[in-house]
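Figure 2 data, in text form.
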Amino acid sequence: GTLALVALREGPYRFSALRRRVEGVSERMLSQTLQALERDGMVHREVLETIPPRVEYTLTELGAEVAAHLEALIQVLETNMPRVREAQAAYHRD
């Protein structure tokens, strides 16, 4: 869910494009995650009346707020990965 929310900060995504953006997630898991996020009011699912029909996912106001906080957390973690790796190495040495 975290990865999908942060990816959707970039703008609307169709399912297949979002799946490529969120690597390593199965189609079934992404589908279930998007349904849960839609149920929780964080993602809006829109069926576009085109031929063939298209479905796009966007963040709601709540989803955008949550995604902003998650992205900040991700940035803190990524910035501190050397410290995390050092702590892991020290843990395994002891």
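Caption note: The chain is about 65% helix and 15% strand.
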